[in-house]
What we know:
Blueprint: H1 6-11, E1 19-21, H2 25-31, E2 36-37, E3 39-41, E4 77-80, H3 83-90, E5 99-103, E6 106-108, H4 120-124, H5 131-137, H6 140-143, H7 152-168, E7 169-171, E8 176-180, E9 187-189, E10 192-196, E11 199-204, E12 207-209, E13 217-219, E14 227-229, E15 235-238, E16 241-246, E17 249-251, E18 262-263, E19 266-267, E20 275-278, E21 282-287, E22 290-296, E23 299-300, E24 313-316, E25 319-325, E26 329-331, E27 334-338, E28 341-343, E29 356-359, E30 363-367, E31 370-372, E32 383-385, E33 390-394, E34 397-398, E35 401-402, H8 405-412, H9 440-447, H10 460-468
Parallel strand pairs: 4-5, 5-8, 6-9, 7-10, 8-11, 9-12, 10-15, 11-16, 12-17, 15-20, 16-21, 17-22, 21-24, 22-25, 23-26, 24-27, 25-28, 26-29, 27-30, 28-31, 29-32, 30-33, 31-34
Antiparallel strand pairs: 1-3, 2-4, 13-14, 18-19, 34-35
Amino acid sequence: xxxxxxxxxxxxxxxxxxxxxxxxxxxxxxxxxxxxxxxxxxxxxxxxxxxxxxxxxxxxxxxxxxxxxxxxxxxxxxxxxxxxxxxxxxxxxxxxxxxxxxxxxxxxxxxxxxxxxxxxxxxxxxxxxxxxxxxxxxxxxxxxxxxxxxxxxxxxxxxxxxxxxxxxxxxxxxxxxxxxxxxxxxxxxxxxxxxxxxxxxxxxxxxxxxxxxxxxxxxxxxxxxxxxxxxxxxxxxxxxxxxxxxxxxxxxxxxxxxxxxxxxxxxxxxxxxxxxxxxxxxxxxxxxxxxxxxxxxxxxxxxxxxxxxxxxxxxxxxxxxxxxxxxxxxxxxxxxxxxxxxxxxxxxxxxxxxxxxxxxxxxxxxxxxxxxxxxxxxxxxxxxxxxxxxxxxxxxxxxxxxxxxxxxxxxxxxxxxxxxxxxxxxxxxxxxxxxxxxxxxxxxxxxxxxxxxxxxxxxxxxxxxxxxx
Length: 469
């Protein structure tokens, strides 16, 4: 793997000579202006909104690096506080002009153009869909288990789902930075940020509450007993390149899976993934986020036949707490997982199954991570695979003890599920790699997730520690 050129590294350094005048959401609303450009003047240090991915910081630093909307002109810098303002500021998927969109406060994606909340019943209105009728039409006792639903109620369900999708799926164009305004508890509730066939995007300092699909589809052919399948991830990458997701908090809260009912003997699942990287996405860095209270967390590669030259992803210095599985599940690509903290304690009803799964020939490097085992979990359960994927593990700690997780898994796995222990590449873009994982439970508790970054681009916890010293 080649490292970034010196020119690219210089391009990603802090730009002197920028200052952003931040308008509050209240002032914007009072003026009745919606999403308005911010005023910029020259000759000041780079702030949080203008920061770019540092050199050698994971796969997204490769080649031209990831700069998002840092080159945005004054007219392309916005502060927004509603879904309508966010959509307007982002513009169309084909608009590649650099832009910075700063989110202040909470944005509810399930709202109409006037800001009124739209309920599941509101989306279903006029479509003819009702859950009661749907359950009656496709009950296994009458519909059977050999074909997917079709007919009047499935058509109505799809129509209602399309109405919800228009609100909750928010298209993010190329050359964009989306960042939460420090101190504003910046949050998107129920939204699906969609990065489809775009390049150069940054998402930072946001709490992202997982979307709830009002209209899951029943598929009796999915597995031996069927499944309810939901539609929306919190952040979806499909064919996206050079993406940096940093200091966000991803969660199902406050609607946890334990609150859902069971139909046809299967959980009525309204959540999909938190951060899925699929369809030939490439050169992605996921760092210093908190993933909490969720089942299927991160899928890398949605098909066993995806592009073998892509799906290169770095995942480092994240916290996983109350995560059931897919942290991550990787297919095909070259994935570097380092300096993360995994807490397997059951949380909000979410019980751990496994952490890292390598399949379809994926080449995963898992180095210097820390696992906390709880509730009878064993080291053999932390890795998973299909017999074709590899995980080169080194320096990993389990409850503070160095542990060979490949050996632990393979000792109990069937011959067809054993993990290969060597990979075909060596990570080179590993900025910030700590050679020991022992301090990660403490250090990452203070420096990950939304709300710890300051307006100047620093980390509040780090700044406080430096002051104490």
